[in-house]
Write a structure and sequence with these properties.
mainly alpha; 85 residues
Length: 85
Amino acid sequence: MGWISKIAKSADLASGMMDRLGSELMEDLMRNPETSTHRLAGVVFRCAGCSDQDGCAKLQAENAHLDHAPSYCRNKGLLERRARA
């Protein structure tokens, strides 16, 4: 997989995980894109370094909602802190 494809897949997985966790992070980023671009890039690049993107894709395909990110998620803490109560 090329670098651009890897980043695109990672962006999709990160966005999907935010949706499934009910994370408000994407909304925060969209409200303040000038100051949040680096934060979104960090989320995507951490996802790109994941050791189990295939497992994450499968988990997301099987679940429309998740209470917690998987233990291997490199964005777990950030996404769960920003989860809607």
